[in-house]
Amino acid sequence: PTPGCCVAERHLSDIDVGKTKIICFVTIQVLAVISGFMTSGQVLAGSFSFGRGWELDVISAVIIGGTSFNGGIGKVWGTLWGVIFIGVISNGMTLLNFDIYTQYVVRGIIMFLAVFISSYRVNIKA
Q: Long-range contacts made by residues 51-57, C-beta under 8 angstroms, separation at least 24?
């Protein structure tokens, strides 16, 4: 759980939630800027539309990595393995000359299966 998600815990642990949120947001923005610089350097150009279409890949990688939609805590290594898995699948489909729409369907099926398995695990534990 995030620090300060419960009022009683916030007072007992003496965590400055506002400061923690600001630090998190600033860190995310700095990492987004670094990511933008790296992407622009890779293609030797700059455009606001470079990240379009990556949302499905990112969410799929996080879900495949083990983070639950139902409020679970994810692991960095699991997410890294999810990113590698999605990258290998995407690269493989590109190398096999799959149509872009077929790639979206395959990625959607993979994400659906990952969410289904994640929900199934939560129901078994409960």
A: 56/104, 56/107, 56/108, 56/111, 57/86, 57/90, 57/107
pLDDT at 74: 74
Query: What is the dihedral sign for C-alpha 111, 116, 122, 124?
Result: negative
Q: Structure tokens of 28?
A: 């995310």
Q: Contact, 118 vs 63, CB < 8 A?
A: yes
Contact 111, 59 (CB under 8 A): yes
Segments in 44-99 forming alpha helices (H): 55-64, 76-95
**Is 72:59 a contact under the CB 8 Å cutoff?**
no
Q: Where are the beta strands (DSSP E) in the chain?
A: none
Half-sphere exposure of 73 (CA within 13 A, CB side): 2
Condensed to tens digits (0 to 9), the pLDDT of residues 79-100 reads 899 999 999 999 999 999 999 8
Cα-based distances in Å from 36 to 16, 30, 58: 30, 10, 15
- What DSSP state is assigned to residue 114? H
